Amino acid sequence: MTRVKGGVTALKQRRNVLKQTKGYRFGRSTKERQAKEAIFHAGMHAFAHRRDKKNDFRKLWQIKIGAATKTLGVSYSKFIDMLKKKNIALDRKILADVAEHHPETFKRVVKHIS
C-alpha cells in the first residue's frame, strides 16, 4: 500500500482551530493544544449560558411587570394570580412589552382583571 502524507490535512485542521481562538489571550491563541482546550471550554460555557439567557429574560420581564403593577397599586404576585383565575393567557414576555411601551393598554388589562 502506498504511503499517504497528512501534512495538508493536519495544517488545515490546525489553521481552523487557531482561527476559532483568534482574540484569546496568551498561548490559547497560538498553541494548538491550548487552543483546542479553550474551544472545548468555550463551547461548554456557550451551551450553559444559552440556557441561562432564558432565565435572565424571565427575571427582566418580572421586574418590568412588577414595576408597572406597583404604580397601579397591585403587587406582581396578586396580578399574576388574578390573570390565572380569570384564564387570561398572556405570557410574561407580552405583558412586559405592553407595560413598557403601551402603559394605557396595560392599565386597561389591570382594571379588567381586578
From TrEMBL:
GO CC, one annotated term: ribosome
Keywords from the named record: Ribonucleoprotein, Ribosomal protein, RNA-binding, rRNA-binding
InterPro entries assigned to the protein according to its UniProt record, in alphabetical order: Ribosomal_bL20, Ribosomal_protein_bL20_C
GO BP terms, alphabetized: ribosomal large subunit assembly; translation
Origin: domain of life: Bacteria
Keyword Transmembrane (UniProt): no
GO terms assigned for molecular function: rRNA binding; structural constituent of ribosome
NCBIfam families: rplT_bact
Function: Binds directly to 23S ribosomal RNA and is necessary for the in vitro assembly process of the 50S ribosomal subunit. It is not involved in the protein synthesizing functions of that subunit.
Family, per entry: Belongs to the bacterial ribosomal protein bL20 family.
Name of the protein: Large ribosomal subunit protein bL20
Species for this entry: Candidatus Nomurabacteria bacterium CG1_02_47_685
Record lineage: Bacteria, Candidatus Nomuraibacteriota
Gene: rplT
